[in-house]
Q: What sequence folds into this?
């Protein structure tokens, strides 16, 4: 059996597959951020907290109302998305004419508040959320044991990413969206309700975060701080992909998962920092990101 | 670099006879500030005051970059934290006197600022912020891995030592006046930079970079210079903090620290001389006295962020300046 | 400052207020995590435990005025040492209790040593507190990394788990836990096959677990804590690692972690603990009283706070003052006696010597009720449970 830099190929395949699974989370989360940034020009720092909210809403649906995982997958994004809509109407709306900086600071503050309240209510030990029967068990792939729940993550996020890309790039609604990004005044003049479009987009981006949260609930523990560290990484993914680029954020999300997976094999300690190294290099070499347009 | 700050500031003192160097109301405010700080340790807990002074200097250094240079760095914790590590290490392991330990910390911060700044200023706006964040995360990673930083335990039991080998800093009073001198020197230096021709060019760049370039200014040199100055002064604050608290830890290099200094500057009023001081005092006081309320500190901090951004973007001092119609 | 004082006073809980009659004025500062990773296993529960100790001691009738302060150190050494310093300098706190998170405890250890007060460490794990960082002012009360590693490591090797692979949190504390356990494993005839270091607060452990799996070791030692441990155990179950024949050894697991995992996932896990709620009538009665006040059974850290405060107050009564040196001398000369640990002594290096318990998490079928998690596998006598003075690097104890 030949070995690749001391690692047998089977193990490497396993690690790459795991990287892809992690990449799925990055992809869905960074997609939401990219959609929001693309249209609203807001750097949504609340994204991590909204991801956490998605997981918590799923947990609450199960424990307070007896609604299971599959419904939660639909309901939690809707509920959190609506909360996002309220936030946009109340706060974020007031900042569109200002510098990016203010949007970033405002959403950072909102994230602190949301996370703080959940810590106060639920502590930080985490709450268990068991996977539905359909997702228990796993496949033996020969080179590794793949739990059904993880395979499902790849499938679900691939579907959601493709769907979002398709809507934005290939449909009339998407065309309006892209046009409104380019020139809101002109699109408004054509009789399209741009403010509504913006609000709906924010709600949708937030819903994507919540969706990722529900996907994460049975795998990781449901915890108020689950989004706190993730948000910085996802930021980096969006920046590497090119801010506002839909396809870029999806591809970078999956790609970065792979790179991180490899780092975990060869230099596990560095797996938390590799994304930032890549971000620094990309920004210095290709400032608009891998898939962004040069301005 | 900024270790010379005291010297520079002291040298600048006699130039008061030049009427342009400080408007009267600034002179009055500085005098009041100094008087207040000289009396304060007899009424308030000195260690708490020193913490406020360190953070006030840090926020002012950050404000130099953001408020006057127009550059938002999201990684200033790197300079603050790395300087505090080096200062602690120098005092504890190399056995340097406190002023030399602080100087070495400041130097490291200046060098880091030079390297990171030279790369980061090639980008603008949010990309600049992201590059600085990326570098800061690498510094954090280095601090976690390097053996001399002691991992999450930090460098503990740092000796305060004797200033110039003479004055024993283990007692709070001499230590306080030492820190006060550093703080005041730093603030005056920053003031001097802002109101120098160099500061005027920075202002021009911030307002219209293209015009500054067409006027023949080498914009990037100015940006780099202000970046290095800001990093060095942040380092001065961090290095001093390590001596005061006898501890350098990961908290000081963590990205949340970078966020905190933005909060202080924003709350107090960016682009004002006294804003960061007020912002730092408010935030540190809150953290200090609300410590027993646990999560509420985070929630209140978040609320302050939201209110500050929505209602008074000029910050506390900015609002006052608007009322009094005088630049503060 | 006035406002701040007022705030502090409202935050402080006056357990008793008859200052006019009181001869001795004792201030106890409960310093722990109230908002982070360890808020559930220490937090407000430790304050409740301290208050119970004051009540049970009946300070009121003994002319001792006791006041309890509490604060959140946010698991940051700088915040913790600041609060400790300020408490001692301006609030005249006599004794600081609890302080989970080793890095913070080491910082507080230095402050208390410098100010010559008392530090009763119930929360922290690092055995350095009675090793190279040992201090005459510190008593390490409840557990330490060595006792946990020793109890669990030895038991696993004895049960046939003689090859180990470590999943270690990449920070000083994780490294120490790994080092201590590896030493025990090798001393008991086992072998360490390798390790993988994961960044602190990772969310995904599958990659590291897979590396552990392919090592072929019989036991995967989890040298991490809190959320990291919970996530690694959870994901090990997901990837069928335990079913495939490897066992997990949690080296720092609290009852709160087991609650977060749920018995379904946690069952069969072997761990070492200093406190078992239903060990005997005394512990059961204490737990019931605690639960009435706090809603949950006490963790070993919270139970330890009760025991430590009680012994300290007895010392104050016996000496007749809150002088740190005198009280410490009394505390070390006389055995502690309470429902938590029974009778136990304090060693020269500041180690509180009591029995430890080797526990196993029950399966859902075995569990009788809501908080019935553990069955007792063995009692580890104090002398075996803790590191000997000779093996520690405490200079003070060797003289």
A:
């Amino acid at each position: 059996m030949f070995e690749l830099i001391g690692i047998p190929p089977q193990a490497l395949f396993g690690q790459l597959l795991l990287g892809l699974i992690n990449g799925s989370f990055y992809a869905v989360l960074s997609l939401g951020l990219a959609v929001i940034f693309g249209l609203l020009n807001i750097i949504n720092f609340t994204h991590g907290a909204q991801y956490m909210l998605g997981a918590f809403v799923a947990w609450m649906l199960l424990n307070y109302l007896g609604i299971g995982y599959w419904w939660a997958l639909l309901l939690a994004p809707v509920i959190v998305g609506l909360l996002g809509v309220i936030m946009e109407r109340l706060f974020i709306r007031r900042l569109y004419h200002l510098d990016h900086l203010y949007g970033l600071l405002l959403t950072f503050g909102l994230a602190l508040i949301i996370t703080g309240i959940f810590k106060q209510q639920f502590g930080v030990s985490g709450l268990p959320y068991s996977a539905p029967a359909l997702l228990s068990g796993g496949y033996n792939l020969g080179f590794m044991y793949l739990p059904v729940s993880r395979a499902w993550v790849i499938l679900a996020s691939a579907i959601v990413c493709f769907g979002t890309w398709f809507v934005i790039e290939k449909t009339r609604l998407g065309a309006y969206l892209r046009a409104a990004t380019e020139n809101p005044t002109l699109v408004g003049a054509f009789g399209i309700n741009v403010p509504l479009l913006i609000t709906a987009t924010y709600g949708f981006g937030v819903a994507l975060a919540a969706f990722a949260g529900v996907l994460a609930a049975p795998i990781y523990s449901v915890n108020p701080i689950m989004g706190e560290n993730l948000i910085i990484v996802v930021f980096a993914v969006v920046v590497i992909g090119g801010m506002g680029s839909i396809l870029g954020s999806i591809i970078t999300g999956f790609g970065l998962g792979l790179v991180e997976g490899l780092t975990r094999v060869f230099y596990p300690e560095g797996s938390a920092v590799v994304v930032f190294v890549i971000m620094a290099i990309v920004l210095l070499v290709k400032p608009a990101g891998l898939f962004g347009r040069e301005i | 670099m900024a270790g010379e700050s005291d010297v520079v500031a002291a040298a600048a003192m006699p130039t008061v006879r030049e009427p342009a160097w400080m408007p009267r109301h600034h002179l009055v405010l500085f005098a009041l500030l100094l008087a207040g700080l000289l009396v304060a340790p007899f009424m308030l807990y000195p260690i708490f005051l020193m913490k406020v002074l360190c953070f006030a200097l840090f926020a002012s250094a950050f404000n130099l970059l953001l408020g006057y240079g127009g550059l938002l760095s999201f990684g200033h914790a790197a300079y603050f934290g790395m300087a505090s590590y080096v200062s602690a290490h120098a005092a504890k392991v190399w056995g340097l006197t406190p002023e030399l330990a602080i100087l070495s910390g400041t130097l490291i911060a200046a060098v880091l600022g030079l390297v990171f700044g030279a790369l980061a200023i090639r980008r603008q706006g949010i990309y600049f912020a992201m590059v600085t964040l990326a570098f800061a995360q690498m510094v954090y990673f280095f601090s976690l891995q390097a053996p001399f930083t002691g991992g999450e335990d930090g460098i503990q039991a740092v000796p305060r030592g004797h200033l110039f080998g003479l004055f024993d800093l283990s007692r709070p009073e001499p230590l306080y006046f030492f820190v006060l001198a550093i703080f005041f020197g730093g603030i005056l230096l920053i003031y001097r930079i802002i109101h120098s021709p160099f500061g005027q060019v920075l202002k021009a760049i911030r307002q219209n970079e293209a015009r500054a370039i067409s006027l023949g200014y080498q914009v990037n040199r100015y940006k780099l210079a202000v970046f290095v100055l800001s990093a060095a002064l942040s380092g001065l604050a961090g290095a001093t903090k390590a001596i005061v608290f006898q501890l350098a830890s990961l908290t000081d290099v963590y990205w949340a620290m970078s966020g905190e200094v933005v909060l202080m500057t924003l709350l107090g009023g960016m682009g004002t001389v006294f804003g960061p001081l007020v912002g730092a005092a408010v935030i540190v006081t809150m953290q200090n006295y609300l410590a027993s309320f646990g999560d509420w500190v985070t929630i209140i901090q978040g609320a302050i962020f939201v209110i500050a951004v929505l209602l008074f973007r000029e910050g506390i001092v900015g609002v006052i300046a608007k009322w009094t119609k005088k630049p503060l | 400052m006035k406002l701040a004082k007022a705030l502090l006073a409202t935050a402080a809980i006056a357990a008793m207020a008859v200052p006019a009659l009181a001869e001795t004025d004792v201030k106890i500062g409960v310093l722990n995590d109230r908002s982070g990773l360890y808020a559930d296993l220490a937090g407000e529960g430790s304050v409740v435990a301290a208050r119970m100790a004051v009540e049970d001691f009946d300070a009121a009738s003994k002319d001792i005025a006791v006041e309890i302060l509490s604060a959140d150190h946010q698991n940051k050494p700088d915040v913790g040492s600041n609060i400790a310093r300020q408490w001692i300098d301006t609030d005249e706190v006599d004794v600081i209790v609890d302080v989970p998170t080793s890095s913070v405890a080491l910082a507080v250890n230095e402050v208390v040593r410098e100010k010559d007060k008392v530090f009763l460490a119930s929360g922290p794990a690092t055995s350095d507190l009675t090793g190279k960082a040992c201090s005459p002012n510190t008593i390490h009360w409840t557990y330490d990394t060595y006792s946990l590693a020793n109890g669990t490591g030895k038991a696993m090797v004895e049960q046939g788990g003689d090859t180990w692979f470590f999943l270690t949190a990449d920070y000083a504390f994780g490294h120490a836990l790994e080092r201590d356990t590896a030493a025990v494993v090798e001393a008991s005839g086992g072998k360490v096959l390798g390790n993988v270091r994961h960044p602190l607060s990772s969310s995904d452990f599958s990659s590291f677990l897979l590396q552990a799996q392919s090592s072929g070791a019989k036991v995967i030692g989890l040298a991490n804590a809190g959320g990291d441990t919970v996530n690694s155990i959870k994901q090990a179950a997901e990837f069928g690692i335990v079913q495939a024949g490897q066992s997990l050894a949690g080296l720092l697991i609290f009852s709160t972690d087991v609650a977060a995992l749920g018995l379904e996932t946690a069952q069969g896990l072997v761990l070492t603990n200093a406190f078992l709620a239903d060990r005997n009538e005394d512990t059961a009665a204490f737990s019931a009283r605690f639960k009435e006040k706090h809603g949950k059974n006490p963790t070993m850290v919270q139970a330890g706070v009760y025991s430590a405060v009680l012994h300290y107050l007895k010392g104050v009564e016996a000496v007749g003052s809150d002088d740190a040196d005198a009280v410490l001398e009394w505390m070390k000369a006389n055995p502690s006696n309470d429902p938590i640990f029974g009778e136990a002594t304090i060693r020269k290096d500041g180690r509180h010597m009591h029995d430890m318990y080797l526990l196993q998490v029950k399966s859902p079928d075995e569990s009788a009720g809501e908080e019935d998690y553990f069955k007792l596998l063995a009692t580890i006598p104090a002398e075996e449970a803790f590191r000997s003075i000779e093996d520690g690097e405490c200079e003070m104890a060797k003289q």
User: Anything to note?
Assistant: The beta strands of chain A are 138-140, 145-147. The interface with chain C takes residues 8, 11, 14-15, 18-19, 21-22, 119, 123-128, 130, 138, 144-145, 147, 149-150, 216, 219-221, 223, 225-226, 229-230, 261, 264-265, 268-269, 271-272 of chain A (CB under 8 Å).
